[in-house]
Structure formats: C-alpha cells, structure tokens
Amino acid sequence: MAERFKIEFKPLALPGAGDVAFLVHDDLVLPPTVPADLAATVSRSASIEGFKGKALGAMVTMAVPGSGHDRIVVVGLGPKADAESIDWVSLGGVLAGKMLAGRELGVFLATAAETVKPEHAADIALGARLRSYSFDRYKTKTGDKDNKAHGPLSLHVIDTLKTKKAVKLKDAVAEGVCLARDLVNEPPNVLGPEEFAGYAEELSKLGVEVEILGEKQLRKIGMRALLGVGQGSARESKVAIMRWNGGKDGSKPVAFIGKGVVFDTGGISIKPAGGMEDMKGDMAGAACVVGLMHALASRKAKANVIGAIGLVENMPDGKAQRPGDIVTSLSGQTIEIILSGQTIEIINTDAEGRLVLADVLWYVQDKYKPQFMINLATLTGAILVALGKENAGLFSNNDELATRLFEAGKLTGETVWRMPMSAAYDKIIDSKFADVKNSAGRDAGSITAAHFLRRFVNDTPWAHLDIAGTAMGSPQTEINKGWASGWGVRLLNQLVAAHYEK
Ligand code: BES
Ligand code: MN
Ligand code: ZN
Q1: Is 60 exceeded by the pLDDT of residue 338?
Q2: Rounded to the nearest 10 degrees, what angle do helices 284-298 and 489-499 cross at?
Q3: Which atom of ligand 1 lies nearest, measured to the CA of 441?
Q4: Stated pTM of the model
C-alpha cells in the first residue's frame, strides 16, 4: 500500500500560514478566531461560486497575497439541525482530496459553535487514509505513480491525546481495509491460493492462530465440492483457518467465511473474453475476511472470532470438472466420522463459488459451533443486476442478525439490502440426478445461489453477503478512488464492536 501522506495531530489553533481548511454549516459562519481578511475572502468566494455549505461540498480559494495563508479549503457540514448525521469518514476523504503534492494542509477542527469531538476527528483521519490509498506497485515509471509525496495532513484538534487514542483503533481498521484492497488488486499470476494463504499466515504476527490445509488434508476431511473446483488448476487448493481468541475462554466464536477464487475463468463453462481480467477479484470475500481478522487482532477485539477462506483457482483443463459431474460435499458428515454428504450435480462449472463455500461453511459449523456464520462472496453477476454497486445483497435465516447487519451498514456506509428466501425458490435447485444442482438458470440467480448455500447450513444463524457489485469496480466515493474497495471490513468490524464484544 502506498501511503501518500502522514497525518499529524496538533493543538487547536488557527494554522498561521500555508494551506488551511475550515468546516462550515450551511450558514457559512466561520469560527471567531478566523481573521477578518480571510473571512471576507471566503464569504466573497462563496457568493461568487455559489458555495452553500452543503454536506461534503467543498470550495477552494486563494488567500489574499501577503496574508500569510495560501490556499483556503472550506468543507460543508450541511444544516446544523442534521449535525448528528454528519459523515465524518467521508469528510476526511473530501479533505484529503483537496491536498496538493508537496504541501501541508492544516485543518482547523472546530466550527463557529463547537469543537469537533476526538472520535469524529479520528473518523476524519480514517477517511483521509482510505482516500489516499493507491495501488501502484506495478507502475515502474515514477510519472505514472499516483504517490507524489503530499505534505502532512495536520489536524488541529481540541484534545490531541484523546484523538490519538481513538485514531489507534481506527488505524487498525484502515490497515485491514487497505490489506483487503491490496489482495483484490494483486494480479492473479502473483496471487495464487498458496500466496494468498501466505497472507493469512502473516496474521500470526498479530496473535492470530492460523492453520493452512492443503489438498491432502482437504481430501481426508472430505471437501470434495471445493476440490472439484480447483482440480483443473495447476495450483494446489488451500483452506486457511484463522482464529482470534480475544474473548472469554470457552465463549462461542463468531465466524466469517470468504470465497477465495483467485481467478475465475468459468472452467469448462468458460466465460467470454471481455472483462475476464476482472475475475482476479473473485477472492474479494476471502480478502475481506483476512482484512477483518487483521483489523480485529490489531485492535485486540474482545471476541472469539473464526475466519475461514476457501482458496482455489477455476481453470479449464483436461483434468477440470465437467458439467454433469456429481460430487459429494462435506455436509451431513461429521468431521471425524465420515457419513455420506449431500450430492451436488454440476450444471455449470462457472457457478463455482457456492461449491467452495458449501464445504467451508459445513466445516466451520461442525467443528467450531459458532454463534453465527457470515459468508462473503463475489457470488453472482445477478446481484449486480438487482442492486447495482450501491448495496451488497444480504440473505439470511435469522432476522436479528440481518437487522444488525443492516444497522451496521447504515453506520459505516457499507450498506446491505435484504433479499427474499423461501421454499418456492429453494425448490428450483432440486436436481434430477443428485440432491441439489449448482445452477438453475438466469431467473432469480442470486437468490437460488443463496439457497444453495442455505442447504449447507443447519440452524446456526447465518447470513450471506453477495458482494459482486460492491467489492470491485466499485463506485468511486470520497474514500475510495481505486478498483478494489475493501468492502465489508468496516461493516463487519462495526458489527462485532456493536454486539459481540461484551
Ligand atoms: N465470480 C462470478 C460472479 C461475478 C460476476 C462476480 C461479475 C463479479 C462480477 C461467479 O462465479 C459466476 O460466474 N457466477 C455465475 C453464476 C451462473 C453460472 C449460475 C454468474 O453470475 O453468471
Ligand atoms: Mn464463476
Ligand atoms: Zn466466481
């Protein structure tokens, strides 16, 4: 990750010179400490430019020569009455976006009426860090690099000590998001299942217990649905299990499961060439789980958390899985005593994510008996048709879990929208030859995919997040200007913090 600038915290005083930033509500009133000439410049510029102090709106103007200041950045907070709902994280993104290469920006974190609280200042710092992310590891010409050193972003705050404390927690989250972005952005030749597992293993430095299962062990366990997906690849499939034990001894863990298809060609049901390069991001669910574990461990979350990811490559090959194949999943088997699992008819080898998740979900459920399981997957193109890039699809067998996810989405801006599930949809995936089929055509494609997963969950509270629209090629926001968004790390960190760290 290229860090483009440092963030510094200074006592609340008007930055005396250089580039300076202020926050105003829609009354455009500046803090009383702002000198009259500067206030006059702002007010005249605002009336000429039509700047009205709308939330997250920004205006840049030049100070009068000789005044000591150079650029003046003014960012809107919207109406005072809506102060409760100010999006401080995005505001940090707006501020970072107004910085110029090689120049410090001093931000005065108080309005005319009150100072910005330490946790909100920390949110601003988080947003600025996320905005400054760029992935340019593979650009060799310095001119192409988007990491021209910016001067520090200096946040002038009422309480530097309290702010720095709050920032430490948010930095853990920022690092988790950026790690997830890095993993999704990495090219597929560089990041195979083994290399990805290496990133999971790195978490042991933070105190996470990590176990990597290779094909030999996976065969022994009986994850034949997952292995079938990877059998056309020259690269060995892996499953990584991460355990963070920050909660009470013996208290039930929460579990996060990620789809980690390092590249999805579609297999024998091969995808068209156009845009196939994007399928390097088909491991975004797994990337989110690793980023989340990183965030939780570095902020020493008081919860027991399992992260489990299925890492495979879906390739066409003489050894690849065929449409018509029938594979036996792990489900129905307890891990020590092998009974017969559910059989799956492969209709389309491009519906591979659900096969990977089926085995990992069952394994986690059977072995760790979690309080809940949440899986994340770039599972279907159909979720893009339904919800676009502005919401992830949420499917769940549990209203409480679904509501908590919805609320965490509103708080973080990583929003989810619940999709329907019912017996009528479930029936569609019955197979002529096996217990279940892995694809049932276009209609309700993201819902039938969710029902497939549901068949591998018993009565454990479970939620599936289809992030095909939100994790990559994501809409450009104030805090994400890249291809990979790192979607889900902030959402799930918020969920854990709000409900599972007692
Ligand atoms: N990885 C894809 C889904 C996807 C599509 C992710 C676009 C991100 C952007 C998934 O494995 C897939 O190919 N799904 C098929 C399912 C179909 C064959 C039932 C799809 O969505 O077309
Ligand atoms: Mn696919
Ligand atoms: Zn896929």
Answers
A1: no
A2: 40
A3: 19
A4: 0.96
